[in-house]
What we know:
By secondary structure, this protein is an alpha/beta fold. 38% of the residues lie in helices and 21% in strands. The longest helix has 15 residues, at 111-125.
Amino acid sequence: MSIENTSARVLVVDDDPTVAEVVTGYLARAGFAVEHAADGTTALASAGRARPDLVVLDLMLPGMDGLEVCRRLRASGPVPVVMLTARGDEEHRIEGLELGADDYVTKPFSPRELVLRVESVLRRSRGRGTEGTAAPEPALGGGGLILDPGTRRASKNGTELALTLREFDLLAYFLRRPGRAHGREDLMREVWGWDFGDLSTVTVHVRRLRAKIEDDPARPCFIQTVWGVGYRFEIPAGTGEAGSL
């Protein structure tokens, strides 16, 4: 049991009794305080009474589907979401990522993998990386962008940006490495910590990040596509250089 898990509340939303029992059991043994909801209405009511630290959300729910649950959860405030999706459910998975879900696990899945994903997302949401007690990293900036890794706050030209956990991590990774070309496989490994997975996850997050930091997302100045490779982060000429502040 992880000591830091004992204070974290996780809401599991899944209508399959067997899956719910396995997921809640593994999370409870990992030290989380776990609550289960079998449908979207119950889940939203539970979150309204006491906001969870993280939601494990099945996309295929009776009545109100998981996408609508995610949309309503996010409308009432930030909360990390790990989605459970069917292997062939790519369209819904991408839509969930577009709504701001932080991670996903594909059914059938390893319960231990799910626990690790939950712990990883929670660490990031609390502003802690894998270094744990390492000295706080100085703020990063360039081109009017400022990111504070310690508080996990970001702004552009003085206006705060509403970034999800993964969007923040992706932008921080780019700001630390301006001018370099990064393949989607590299980004998935370095930012997501995955050695394999659906590369559309990276594409979706780049598109969402562009929508938030670019003046014209259709003609990006910061995150440029490198055809046949992936992406390169550039600071527009005359706006300073990327780096620590």
